[in-house]
Amino acid sequence: MSGEWGVDGMDATHAADEAVAFDSPLPTLHSQLGFTADLFPAGLNGALRRWPSIETQSFPLFDKRAGLTPSWKPHWAKVPTVGLTFPLGFEFQPKADEFAEKSGLKKIAGPKSVESELAEHAQQSVEKKATRLKPPSDAISLEDRLFYLLQPPLQTMLAGQELIMPFEPFPYQYEGIAWLFSQKTALLADEMGLGKTMQAITAIRLLLRGGQVRRVLLVCPKPLIPNWQREFKAWAEELSPTVVEGDSIRRRMLWQMPTPVLLVNYELLVRDWADMLDDERPKFDLVVLDEAQRIKNRDSCTSQTARSVPRKRSWALTGTPIENRPEEMHTLFEYMTVIPKGGTPDLRQMQRLSRDYVLRRTKDLVMKDLPPRLDRDEILELTPAQKSAYSAAENDGVIHLNEMGDQATVQHIFELVMRLKQITNFDPLTGESVKFERLAADMEEISASGGKAILFSQWTKTIDWLKARLPAECGTLVYHGGVPHKQREPILKQFKEDPNAHLLLMSYGTGAVGLNLQFAGYVFLYDRWWNPAVEDQAINRAHRIGVKSAVIVTKFICKDTIEERIDKVLHEKRELFRAVLGDGNNSNASLSLSASEIFGLFDLKARHGKGTKKIAPKPAESVTDAA
Description:
By secondary structure, this protein is an alpha/beta fold. The chain has 24 helices and 19 strands.
């Protein structure tokens, strides 16, 4: 191997090496390696000599001002905010005063004004007491509480001419409307005659106007359907409730209609709900149960169906939340979804629940200017024929029960009691009746003075018997379960408007609830019902808001009969009923006749060895005794 320094005299191999070598000021040593490299026209080897092209772009990180302040700004996350949109349904534009003058309407001014002690002007200003909407106790979120706090006073809501009412509500009714409006679960238990229907309709009206509810289901007994329609026409003329009626195809169509207020009776609710599939059953924003004591039996189909209706709000209306036992409130609380399914709160828990979810007012507290109710017990002595029939029936019945011994049941006692009570009404053989004689004498005086009276009886047979024997001067009308529904409203209208119609004969079951008969000044209880609460309901058909004079209540009681003993027990139960609803000191006492009390009406004995022994079931143990 040989080599040469320098460039001159290089052979082809050295020239090729020179072409490949990089530019350098240093001398290069060329050596013959014994192989040759071929250069191809593609020029790939020449590309190795080129520097890669680099493109640059400048970004100023700092501005030209002194310091190191960056010109870019950091990105901060948005702070979460809550937007509230309040309904505009209450911002009514009052109509022109000329229209009010022509139509005879007057602006509602709210409750009576009181003198302001903090007046800054020289002349003392008068401020009106405003009824504000209070947030419900279970409203925790800020949005829910602000909605109620920012609402205008109830008087402002009702002051516009677009909310026309037949007359201004009483102050306690304002409070009831505001309370219902703000409650998702509520039991309005005002005493009969204080306007529960009016308060419920007005609260529903405001909820619909304010956009709080869109679909309302109102359930009531069948005889009260016309009464609710009439009250809606008076207190919410722009709302026309749709009544679920007709054949099954028509009712199924009505259930699916997007009507604001749907009105149905308890019987049809149970029947239609069972026929509909789960996905066919409608959902409601509000369900209102009128005469809610109808669901007191937790295991009944009516109670189970009412509790199964999908709803967001649950209201109940009843003047007698407790008819027999305080435990009936458990079912109402379960419907209101304030206790779990099957829950049984104790007395202390029920008192706490009642403070939060039950509103009850009595007439003696809120309507002090209401004319009084005058009760009188008319003690009568049976006619000779009635005495003979009564003694024979009682002796035979007691002997038969004594022979039955321990096999005697409450049903056997009831049969005897019913037979004896019917004899005190009239003798089935001779038709003699001391009660009828007294009634005829009273009605002669009432008819002569142009008054109107209502008579309640337990039996339709007794009502028909009286109708056939009362003189024509009484203008007697009949209203009981045997009267077709289409004829009932005309009967009530005739009794109210016909000056010659002085007496209306009604049964407890049909006429004791939901009717407004405050134009009648006299009430007769021809025979006694088992429950004092039902008797009070019947009496309060006449003694209610709108009555102009005192209502005289006459209770017929036959001396030395079963009626005297029943009246004594019912008087004790009436006092107990008031105590339970007032302060709840009693928790497990029956408010109508219990089994032991029914047996106690008679001196029943059974053979025991050579002698006899008294038979009667043991009285129910009270909570206080059990404790």
